[in-house]
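For the sake of transparency, this paper describes our internal protein records without simplification. The tokens are whole numbers drawn from a learned vocabulary of local backbone shapes. One such record is reproduced below, unchanged from the form in which we store it.

. . .
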Amino acid sequence: MRITRSVARRRPRTAATATTGLTLAALLLTGCGGSSDSDKGADADGAITLTVADFGQFGYKEAGLFEKYHELNPKITVKEDTTAEEKNYYPKLLQQLNSGSGLADVQGIEVGRIKEIVDTKADSFADLSEVIAVDEWVSWKAKQATAPSGAVIGAGTDIGPMSLCYNRELFEKAGLPTERDEVAKLTEGGWDAYLALGERYKKKAPSGTYFMDSASAMFNAVVSSSPEQYYDASGKPVYRESAGVEKGWQLAARAADRKLTQGLAQFEDQWQAALRKSTVATVVCPAWMAGQISTYAGDANKGTWDITSAPGNTSANWGGSFLAVPKSGRHVDEAAKLVKWLTAPEQQAAVFKAIGVFPSNQGAYELPDVKNATLPYFNDAPIGQIYADGAKSIPEAVLGPKDGVIKDSISTQINNMEQRGTSPDDAWDAAVRTIDKAIG
């Protein structure tokens, strides 16, 4: 989740560059004002350093935003402390919250963790509801970081609207249409239609290639397109009865049984090699995935790939994070101003242009760097339009405190069906045992 910022979703520190048909002389960036004289820890001349702790790749360095903020606010220097993997970052964050020490002025929080933080640690963070313009965000994004008290403890950085990335060259060799509108029409019936397309691909597939990289990735996309996922509104785990989980599991089992998938664990070495060697024809593509494909498929495959809309009429969100301000920070007011600035439309558009993660602030959608964005690597796919259209149809879903644990446990068992031939019943039973032990 960019690789959605969790173990299975948050992506490594790589980038995809979006371009627009227009060349802007400069981004219109608005400063937030200087530091307060009463700010704790300021130097004699009022200069302060703000620390930002995050994970993976948030894109601020690539977009030059910290340097720009210093230009606009000469007495403020921003330093970023990045942990490569979210799975290592989050336990440390919880330890720091429990001890009340070691926290940065600004902390990143992954979407798979936000519910647990809202439920158990909301009082540790500043309320941003009067600092940021909450109504600017897609509504479900703001609600994810809103505590029962009404306090908004995080400002959304990005979202992961779903699309479908496909290898045009492999499609052509398998006798399938290659134009993105034609591919979209073949999958407009939803994920069942997507598997039917896979059956067509399989009949004439080039030797050693597969229709999809991972059935677990498809499972995540299917579940993410449903308002009913792993928990109900009361906070009760319902993954065993969830219609979205059941549908995703059945589709994944069918894909594994029909050998439509190469059975790769996404982001691992074998997955990267498959992209480089062009052995997979499709990859379920939240917005941030384009950067993964372009990086690991490499320059030799530029123009080979394309992007079209996700199967079906309902999009999905896979990924996204938040910026939060701990109350214990030395510069709470200035940190909140920095968060407001970093998540404003212009800055989210700059990050999208730099690394391809899609804004959660709707005000960015009409800016040229988003609205007119294309990806040259993906046959000039109009990603600004594709992702914005997808964002409009993402259902509001209930999040739970252990969403990440449940998702990762199920994904592991789907991989076992693909790689080891584990039966669907045995794989499901193993997933249930793991999940129930983890969540109590």
Remarks:
- The first helix runs from residue 65 to 72.
- The longest strand covers residues 48-55.
